[in-house]
Specification:
By secondary structure, the protein is mainly α. It has two helices and no strands. The protein has a domain of 26 residues.
C-alpha cells in the first residue's frame, strides 16, 4: 500500500461526509488480511547454504 497518499491534504465538510469518512476508516481497519504462518529456515554460514542448495537440487531433480 502506498503511504504517500496519506500526506495529501483533503477537506471533509458536512455531517454526511464526516460519517462516510469515519465509516471508511473503520472498514479499512476491520478488513485486515490475516497473517499466514510459514516455515522459515535461517541459513548461517557457507556450509548451511551449500547443504540447502544440495537439498534443493535433489528435490528439483526428482520432481521433473
Amino acid at each position: 500500500m502506498a503511504t504517500s497518499s496519506i500526506t495529501k491534504n483533503f477537506i471533509i465538510s458536512g455531517q454526511k461526509q464526516v460519517e462516510m469518512f469515519a465509516d471508511a476508516i473503520e472498514a479499512s481497519a476491520n478488513d485486515r488480511t490475516p497473517r499466514v504462518p510459514i516455515n522459515v529456515t535461517y541459513l548461517q554460514g557457507a556450509d548451511d547454504i551449500l547443504k540447502f542448495m544440495e537439498r534443493r537440487k535433489k528435490a528439483n531433480a526428482t520432481s521433473k
